[in-house]
Design brief:
By secondary structure, the protein is of the alpha/beta class. The strands form 3 sheets. It has a 5-stranded parallel beta sheet, with helices on one face. The chain has a 4-stranded mixed beta sheet with strand order 8-9-10-11, with helices on one face. Strand 3, helix 6 and strand 4 form a beta-alpha-beta unit. It starts with a helix and ends in an 8-residue tail after the last helix.
Length: 514
Amino acid sequence: MYRALYRKWRPNQFDDVVGQQHITQTLRNELVANKLAHAYLFTGSRGTGKTTCAKILAKAVNCEHMVDGNPCNECEVCRGIDSGAILDVVEIDAASNNGVDNIRDLREETNYTPVRAKYRVYIIDEVHMLSIGAFNALLKTLEEPPEYVKFILATTEVHKLPATILSRCQRFDFKRIEPEDIAERLATVAEGEDITLEREAALLIARVADGALRDALSLLDQCAGQSDTVTADLVSRVAGLTGREHLFRLAECIRQNDCAGALTVIDELHTASCDMERLCAQLIEHYRNLMIIRAVNRPSGLIVCTSSELELLEEQAKGYTLEGIMHVLSVLEEAAASMRKGANRRIEAELAFVKLCTPNADTSVESLLRRVAELEKAVRSGVAAAPAVPRTESAAPSPAAKPLPNGECAAWADILQELKTVNMPMFAILADSSARVQDQYLVIASPNPSVGAMLKAGSNAVDLKKAVFSVTGCRYKIGVERPSEPPAPPAPEDDPLASFLKEAKKMGVDIQTT
């Protein structure tokens, strides 16, 4: 029966483990010096060799003819462990055996001495899946196991383990394997399997695998199933790196503020049953690549793509500022979070693209930084940017218009009607007001005390100035007439009785009042 490459080429001694020399050398030294711990914890991301090293260590501690810390793989014990004939090495999947009863059974088994091997070795994979009760049941045995028992725990999520477990184990952290090391291992496997593997294809597989050698071997296995010659184009097709033209189209729509074009592409993708959350994740990855290109001098080692696609990314990145890319990433991250909560993912995607393609509608700090960066880029390029709104601050009259005479503004009613079409709240505030012209000022008199505050809020003053200019053809500064101070109330007259008593007291007459 055919065996997958990652199973067939699994290392059977420490020297064959790729990219984890800092761990394998330490384990070999402990084996040679016979200074073994009673419990080990192997942690790291998937496919980096945790279970493989656990199995090699289980063989090495029981090997009858150990060679420089490596199992010989030839003695009866090594062959029996590999074939499963020797039951003293037990591998437990904590994902499906995570209850208290499972751990109690394990504790009962530790009371029995090994049958054939020197040690009973328990390899508990994905140990973070154990329940709290199971962890508590394991504590005492893990701290003081019988001298013939060894524990090897493996996990990808070490932060989920209780501190009481961590303190009882000797911990080894497996790092992600470097792409060059993965590519060399793939070349060795390809040579042994009579597969023609191009160097560029091997490096592309290594970058797609993201530090996991098992994933790399699985992808090589999948590519070899289509052709005995594995090229970069074949890897790109199998790994799903091709067919991403829509990402470039959407990114170009955002760069050109083409809202209609972006919504059209989204409609096409939605019709083709594209998941909007998946599309958002792909776009985040796309803009991450653009960010790397803008921020790093040599981005090829940090981006997973073919050389032709890298050229397209570099060309598209020229049209973006780093601030603009970061703003897009921020909006897409918010959209992805909303999609997981909202009922309609398409609407969330469309809202995000409308915001990205209409910068003036987005008042966030990131959007403002993006617009400032684009203006700075335009200035450096020598491109003059037109003002977004016409100037209204100047009080100089238009050459074709005649200034209004000082005094009561006869056109005030027409001005209010013009204001009504653009700013109804401000029109309502000024409904009972009047105005007079005083040189370059249009002074408003109103019984409503909130007129001054309203003119300072938002674009109310700008809208009023536009209405004045539209009716009169002249530009005026706006003033508000202060209401006159009400006359002070007259001082109350003195009480006649008090005055009489005061005069009597001066004359030496003491009059008692009741």
